Amino acid sequence: MFAQQLFAQGTPAAGPAGAGMAGIMQLLLIVGIFVVFYFILIRPQQKQQKILRQRIAGLKKGDRIVTAGGIFGEYVSEKENGKVAIIKVGDDVKLEIIKTTISTVLADGDKIAESEAKK
After folding, report:
1. CATH code at 60-118
2. pLDDT by residue (tens digit) across 19-72?
3. Are 86 and 93 contacting, i.e. CB atoms less than 8 angstroms apart?
4. How far is the C-alpha of 58 from the C-alpha of 65, rounded, in Å?
5. From 23, 26, 43, 77, which residue has the greatest number of CB atoms within 10 Å?
6. Helices vs strands, H then E, count in the chain
7. What is the arithmetic mean of pLDDT over 4-16?
8. What are the extents of the domains in the chain?
9. CA 99, CA 35: separation in Å to the nearest integer?
């Protein structure tokens, strides 16, 4: 009987004020997790995409590229207002690709990786 009265009355200190603090702490935890994900996952990815877009925009004849399909080629020219790139993949073989399928613009030091991929 005494226990029923205690539960019915509740404790004044743990009433609405305690529930409000728990809600704020949960909200802060969710915001904190989002901030961590932003700085660990989202922001670095955006930086890489920005660098790739700049490198694609600055392509010049002779640059080595890799397409999303894994084709190594040498950039020759572009057409259709810069949306299509023409790449040379062999002695007499040229392909037309959409520029957005370029996944990597190789630097001079990356040609070693290409020769290893051909083995």
Report:
1. 2.30.30
2. 678 889 999 999 999 999 999 999 999 999 999 999 999 999 999 999 999 999
3. no
4. 12
5. 77
6. 4, 5
7. 54
8. 15-55, 60-118
9. 33
Tokens for 41, please give them. Answer: 């996952």
How far, in Å, CA of 87 to CA of 71, rounded? 10
- Half-sphere exposure at residue 20, Cβ-oriented, CA atoms within 13 angstroms: 4
pTM: 0.64
How far is the C-alpha of 27 from the C-alpha of 49, rounded, in Å? 31
What is the mean pLDDT of the segment spanning 14-19? Answer: 59
Kind and range of the H or E element at 19?
A: helix 16-37
- Assess whether pLDDT exceeds 50 at residue 112: no
What whole-number distance in Å separates Cα of residue 92 and Cα of residue 96?
A: 13
Q: Which residues pair with residue 65 across a beta bridge?
A: 73, 105
